[in-house]
Amino acid sequence: MTPKPPKIVIIGAGSAIFGLGALSTMMQSEQLRGAHLALCDVDEPGLELVTALAHKMNDAWGSEITISSSTNRRELLPGADFVLVSVQVGPRETVWEMDWRIPLRHGIHQPYAENGGPGAFSHTARNLPLILDIARDMEQLCPDAYYLNLTNPLIRLTTAVHRYTKIKVVGLCHQLLWGYAMAGAILADRYGIQVPDHFHVHTDADNMPNFIPVARAAVEHLEIKAAGINHFSWVYDIRDKTTGEDLYPELRERWLNHYRRDFEPLTREIFEIYGMMPTAGDSHMCEYLSVVHDPITKPWEKYDLKLQSWDGNRRRRASRKALAEAIVSGKTPVDDLRDVWRHNMLDEGIPEMIGAVMYNSNHYHQQLNIPNNGFIPNLPQGAIVEVPGIISGIGFQGLSFPPLPEGIAALCRRELELASLVVEATATGDRQLSLQALLLDPMVTDIDTARAILDDFLVEFAEYLPQFA
Question: What predicted TM-score, i.e. pTM, was given to this entire model?
Answer without folding.
Answer: 0.96
